[in-house]
Amino acid sequence: MTTTLFSPLQLGDLQLPNRIIMSPLTRTRAEPGHVPGALMATHYAQRATAGLIIAEATLVAPGSSAYMNEPGIYSEAQVAGWKRVVDAVHHAGGRIALQAFHPGRASHAAMNDGVQPVSSTDRAIRASDEERAAGKGYDTPRRLTTAEVGQVITQFRHAFENARRAGFDAVEVHGAHGYLLDQFLRDSVNDRDDEYGGSIEKRARLLLAVLDEAIAVFGSGRVGLRISPLVAFNDISDSNPPALLQYLAQEIERRAVAFLDFRHDRHDAPAEEALYDILRLHYRGLVLRNGGYDRDSGSAELARGRADAIIYGKAFIANPDLVERLRKNAPLAQADFSLLYTPGPRGYIDYPALEPTSLDEPALA
């Protein structure tokens, strides 16, 4: 029987009704103190028909904001706020995972009462041409000491414990996009000569230690990992992505991690496809793929056995009922990207679902 977007999926300990995953999408709608509020609860509950919601990147430590109003998971108020969100999603019949992250050198002192960013290095992110033209830049980070790396692991452990108290169904470790764990992982940024730098094994040590903490709290059947070996966001790259991926795949296989969120710029790029082949040689768990999929390409990927589920991001912004629209092959609403990070409900919870009379397009088998 052909696997489709609507085939159920056993994702570790979670039974999903479909293979349409909502991507973690930073929307900067948290209330003061990085506390999730009623607006976020409504937003996520509207999208609860996704097989799994992976909630937006959530700060594990104070003084590390990169986007101003992103949520956190380190305070009691934040735990209470997230519980409100999780309860709303569960009430609507959905499942939701927390994505835990530390931005590292991608944070800004001006957003954090003057607190200097930290990283594996003391080199700042090089601003893009567009950022320089807009007068934007990045602060020089402070290189974490070996002892402080241990404190980061403790911060993540506390975040996972808080996520469990808030009722999340699972957690995803954010090891991608040039944020702190990725700043240790990839060698264009990590220039350390201690036990967290140099060889692939040493550069991966922090990420794997954090992953072990997630497993200790949630169990391996409710833990996922996001990596992006070829994504250059936040001025990062690696000299040998295939070797890096092979080592990570072997290590997450050994830990029986439930899923790998394999983040691409473009899923159909030949280099990405080659990395997927390496991944599949060494990791038998579930692979969630993203990077520009639409209904047809996502369906084809599943039918070919090149993914276990498909992650959709932009499509979920303007289509709270994306699952039903894909099922009926109905037109997708287009997002107003000028409202992506603005405060308030506009462009966040005011995208309408289809009228029932318009759901008469042929369904995807």
Task: Indicate the topology.
Blueprint: E1 9-11, E2 14-16, E3 20-22, H1 38-46, E4 52-59, H2 76-91, E5 96-101, E6 118-119, H3 129-133, E7 142-143, H4 146-166, E8 170-174, H5 180-185, H6 200-203, H7 205-218, E9 223-227, H8 241-254, E10 259-262, H9 270-282, E11 286-289, H10 295-303, E12 309-312, H11 314-318, H12 322-328
Parallel strand pairs: 3-4, 3-12, 4-5, 5-8, 6-7, 8-9, 9-10, 10-11, 11-12
Antiparallel strand pairs: 1-2
The description of the largest β-sheet is: 8 strands, parallel, barrel
Low-confidence runs of at least 5 consecutive residues: 358-365
**What structural category arises from helix and sheet content?**
alpha/beta
Percent in helix: 25-40%
Overall radius of gyration = 20 Å
Count of individual beta strands: 12
The global form is globular
Question: Proportion of β residues?
Answer: 5-15%
Give the overall pLDDT as a whole number.
Answer: 94
Q: List the secondary-structure elements in sequence, H or E.
A: EEEHEHEEHEHEHHHEHEHEHEHH
Major β-sheet strand ordering: 3-4-5-8-9-10-11-12
Number of helices: 12
| Terminal-residue CA separation | 11 Å
